[in-house]
Amino acid sequence: MKTKKPAPEKKYFTVAEANATLPLARAIVKDITTLARDLRERHERLKRLEPNEGAKLGQAYQEEVEQVRTEFERDQERMRDFLKELNDLGIQLKDFDTGLLDFPCLLDGREVYLCWKQGEPEVTHWHEIDAGFKGRREITPDFGRRQRAESSGVSN
Fold it and tell me: How distant, in Å, are the alpha carbons of 7, 86, 132 from that of 137?
């Protein structure tokens, strides 16, 4: 009988850990934002190419539609792989277009998100779980002190 593997413990980041992860996360996000744009364009092209019901297609046209469909499906699989990479790191993608990432973090005994957007040099903002991007606040020295005190008693 197979036994179920226990769920991995949730990863909580310090600001330093999130920033240390950024080089890899940045590369993945760059691939995701580029691929998201390509997928949108390919989807639009498929909608334009696919014939109306009952319409007869020429062989060349059928081949083009099939090629675009195959590329679209291949790229969807690549996107799933990129998302899995981020998930395996403990990072949450919040927006495919802007490359917005959240890093779970513990602060004063509650979960918050460290927040980074593609183009920013480092993680410099955080927000409450339910606040989203509009609720972003700058990370202050006090935040770092409160987080260090929190993480000293918690293992990742």
Answer: 31, 23, 10
